[in-house]
Write a structure and sequence with these properties.
It is a single chain. By secondary structure, the chain is of the alpha/beta class. 60% of the residues lie in helices and 9% in strands. The strands form three sheets. A seven-stranded mixed sheet has the order 7-8-9-6-10-11-13, with helices on both faces. Strands 4-3-2-1-5 form a five-stranded antiparallel sheet. A two-stranded antiparallel sheet has the order 12-14. β8 and β9 form a beta hairpin. The radius of gyration is 35 Å and the shape is elongated. The structure holds guanosine-5'-diphosphate and magnesium ion (MG).
């Protein structure tokens, strides 16, 4: 009997709680667990909620909730036991004994539904299971049939239902509607998904829909005899692990494998099955975004999620499903859900120029293709479709990898070469603006702040915007065509070698854009160990913020090989990530990991709109950072460098300059003499400025840390720029821009030129160039490896849930950076000399 059917004053013992995860958890916390006694305090007909008393206190439940709890009354217990024992003499039992026996019997009842494509073999399996045993009944629906049978197996009572065959669970055919209603309204304990193994792809499509529904599933891999006969190789055990569903091979027509099927059913029912877990089919970034938007509105209606997974409802709404729309029509926030759904559908269709239902179907087939690629080898070659034909090249055992490397190389090479043109224009514009203000504004701190602080600092970062947009253009292209998923696939085997999964590869690639969203993207990795390791190695993926530094240094010191070296740097980052992952998986995170499906979505010609949108979305994050963190940092660094104003100079520079200027007033100077005078004045001014700068707060800070970075060949200016890079890596460049500003009045060469000419001001290297090619390399390595940035550290803290890994990252990366830069500098110098 259902709890909702008990009348005032009656009591029952709880035998079973149905419904879905979140509801079950809540109800269990309230004390509604098997064996507990519930008494009705007030159950007025047609009134919601109903009041109950359980474990000495009173609670109220909605009628819909109470109807998901099965109870046994003393009367019922008697009839259950007498039908099970065929004895009507129950006098010897006390009431508690009766009830506990009744509960035991009832909780050993499993309701099973057979779901599958037409002709998958459901009825054959049903007949074999039911036929030889008990009670077969045939119930007719309005237009479609379902058959029921009850039999006993190993002490369990099995209620089996054979449902009509369907290819899908949309609401297009009466069969589909019937099966959906049955699953939602009858809440079978277990769904046995009968699959025809001669057409795995199409049959698994239905399985993905069952996965969306978040029900307990077992797959009967039927027609297994035919699969064996064809000689196909199907690692169904692996497939089961990937999907979190046990696969049992069966031959329905001969009744083979059915005992194993029932044993597995009992294991899943009693939560003893090791493979069963609830997975999510991954629909890709954009669709997932839409799902969560709709989901969060649906979740406001708690009672809906008792019987329906909110993710499933959200998906169905995106598919424009009529039945789900009807289901939620009476919810108070129906208009809210509707409008969010419409917005999301329009957004998706705008991006992909494709019907939202098709997008979801495609993603499902992508999921299946990915799962099959890892587990299934066909002997017979059927005619290949376009996607498969392209895949046979791009994911080829041998060619896949070089193609992948080539595409990534092409990306970075083009970024560098193509980006140089707009970069030159922006640079010219920034220079012009600086000169303009310089000419027309009176001297003073404000002018200094504008010209030497903001314009020079922000300007030196903004020149990299074209590069970053081009890089994002490529990444978006690779993502939207579907290639990125293949890249993950190609990488999977390799990723396994370092103890990670191909899925970790996506966040890592995103890390090339920005580490922050990349670390957030690691959320999709279900295994906690893998997630944390992925987070910890993501900072070795050179984010776009580091690109400006690379481009500046490479352009200045290795102009002829800049593109290739850029590639090498990114590659070193990747190698470090691999090494670190290996180290961690062998030491801190040894636990075994769970396999995932990697989706292989169909190849798609991306729309210009989606590419531009993705590119802009990422590019605008960069611009936002420039307006925020970078602007503040630039002003801060400028102020540290500008103050204090009252320096105690070692020489009386002003008098020296005055003396020289006085000479200039002599009217019979020849031009060469005048020029050399100007030059002399300029040199003294520079010397003065250098002294002033060294004496500034910034200079003192840099000098303070200089001993620590001297072994790497760095001077205090580099030290200051590295310190400032802690806020964001782009600031390294803008800091260098501010620090080397002093000489810009005379020569018009860019920052690169100034770096090339910079000499050491103190120590045993005085007068020597600061930046040799070796120092430049050491500096690049340091930039690549050290402290990612404040935002990344806070992302790691949030995603890992503790400060531990965030603090660890700070020390680990900075320590490693120092060590590597030290090696580059010291070994490099030994080799050179
Ligand atoms: P349903 O539509 O899912 O109920 O499928 P049926 O049970 O009616 O089976 C369709 C056809 O497949 C029948 O001719 C069965 O004899 C045959 N069949 C069922 N299971 C198997 C099997 O495991 N191997 C083979 N070779 N044939 C099977
Ligand atoms: Mg049938």
């Amino acid at each position: 009997m259902l709890l909702s059917e008990l009348q005032n004053g009656e009591y029952g013992i709880i035998a079973k709680v149905k419904g879905r995860g979140a509801f079950r958890k809540r109800i269990t916390e309230m004390g509604f667990v098997k064996g507990k006694r519930v008494t009705v305090v007030k159950n007025a007909p047609l009134k919601d909620p109903i009041e109950y008393s359980i474990m000495g206190y009173e609670v109220s439940l909605r009628r819909s909730e109470a109807s998901l709890i099965e109870v046994i009354t003393p009367e019922e217990a008697k009839s259950i036991i007498s039908s099970a024992t065929h004895s009507h003499n129950l006098i010897k039992f006390t009431e508690p004994e009766l009830i506990s026996t009744g509960v035991k019997t009832l909780s050993k009842t499993i309701n099973i539904a057979l779901v599958g494509n037409p002709n998958a073999g459901k009825t054959s399996i049903f007949n074999h299971l039911a036929g030889a045993r008990e009670h077969v009944g045939n119930y007719s629906g309005v237009t479609v049939d379902s058959k029921h049978a009850r039999f006993n197996y190993k002490g369990y009572t099995i209620n089996l239902t054979d449902l009509p065959g369907t290819y899908s669970l949309t609401a297009y055919t009466p069969e589909e509607v019937f099966v959906r209603r049955f699953i939602h309204e009858q809440n079978p304990d277990i769904i046995i998904n009968v699959i025809d193994s001669s057409n795995l792809e199409r049959n698994l499509y239905l399985t993905t829909q069952l996965i969306d529904m978040d029900v307990k599933i077992i797959v009967a891999l039927n027609m297994y005899d035919e699969l064996i006969e064809r000689g196909d190789k199907f690692d169904y055990h692996m497939m089961g692990k990937l999907l979190g569903i046990p696969f049992v091979p069966t031959v329905g027509s001969k009744g083979k494998g059915l005992d194993k099927l029932l044993d597995t059913t009992i294991n899943v029912f009693t939560d003893k099955d090791k493979i069963t877990r609830h997975i999510h089919v991954n629909y890709g970034e954009e669709i997932e975004k839409s799902i969560s938007a709709i989901q969060s509105e649906i979740k406001k209606n708690q009672h809906l999620t008792i019987n329906y997974s909110s993710r499933y409802l959200a998906l169905k709404l995106l598919e424009k499903d009529k039945l789900v729309d009807k289901l939620i029509k009476n919810e108070p926030n129906y208009t809210g859900i509707r409008s969010i759904t419409d917005i999301e559908v329009n957004r998706l269709e705008g991006i992909f120029r494709e019907d939202s239902e098709t997008l979801i179907t495609d993603a499902k087939y992508g999921f299946i293709a990915g799962a099959l690629k890892e587990t299934y080898k066909e002997t017979r070659h059927k005619k290949k479709q376009t996607t498969e034909r392209i895949d046979s090249i791009l994911t080829h055992k041998i060619w896949g990898f070089p193609i992948f490397i080539f595409l990534i190389w092409l990306t970075f090479f083009t970024t560098f070469t193509l980006g140089q043109y707009p970069m030159g224009w922006i640079e010219a514009g920034v220079n012009w603006l600086g000169n303009f203000i310089n000419l027309y504004m009176p001297d003073g701190p404000l002018k200094d702040l504008l010209v030497k602080g903001i314009i020079s600092g922000v300007g030196s970062v903004i020149v990299f915007l074209p590069n970053i947009l081009i890089l994002f253009l490529f990444i978006s292209l690779l993502e939207d065509t579907g290639y990125m998923a293949r890249a993950a696939f190609i990488m999977d085997k390799l990723m396994h070698k370092i103890g990670l999964h191909g899925k970790s590869f996506i966040p890592l690639v995103m890390g090339f854009g920005c580490n922050v969203p990349a670390i957030m993207a690691s959320r999709t990795i279900e295994n906690r160990n893998n997630r944390i390791v992925t987070m910890l190695i993501t900072p070795f993926m050179s984010c776009s913020a580091r690109l400006p530094v690379y481009i500046l240094i490479l352009g200045a010191f290795f102009p002829e090989n800049a593109g290739n070296l850029l590639f090498v740097i990114y590659f070193i980052g990747i190698l470090l990530a691999i090494g670190t992952a290996l180290l961690f998986k062998k030491t801190i995170f040894k636990a075994e990991d769970i396999p995932f499906v990697m989706e292989l979505p169909p190849y798609r010609m991306p729309t210009t709109r989606s590419i531009l949108m993705h590119m802009w979305h990422k590019g605008s994050q960069y611009l936002k950072k420039m307006g925020g963190v970078i602007l503040v940092a630039v002003i801060f660094i400028w102020a540290l460098g500008y103050y204090p104003r009252n320096a105690n100079y070692t020489k009386d520079f002003n008098t020296e300059i005055e003396q020289l200027k006085a000479k200039l007033t002599n009217s019979n100077l020849t031009q060469p003499v005048a020029d050399s005078l100007y030059h002399a004045i300029r040199l003294i001014e520079l010397e003065k400025e250098a002294e002033r700068q060294a004496n500034s707060y910034l200079g003192r800070l840099g000098k303070f840390i200089e001993p620590a970075i001297r072994p790497l060949g760095f001077d205090w200016k580099m030290g200051v720029s590295l310190l400032s890079g802690v806020a964001a890596k782009e600031i390294v460049v803008s800091t260098l821009g501010v620090l080397y500003q002093t000489e810009s009045d005379t020569d018009n060469g860019g920052l690169a030129e100034k770096l090339r000419n910079e000499t050491h001001q103190s120590g045993e290297l005085t007068g020597k160039l600061v930046f040799t090619r070796i120092t430049a390399l050491a500096f690049l390595v340091f930039i690549l490896v050290y402290f990612p940035c404040v935002a990344v550290i806070s992302a790691i803290k949030n995603e890992s849930g503790s400060w531990k890994w965030a603090v660890f990252t700070i020390f680990f990366t900075t320590g490693l950076a120092w060590l590597l830069a030290f090696l580059v500098y010291q070994l490099g110098n030994i080799i050179i000399s």
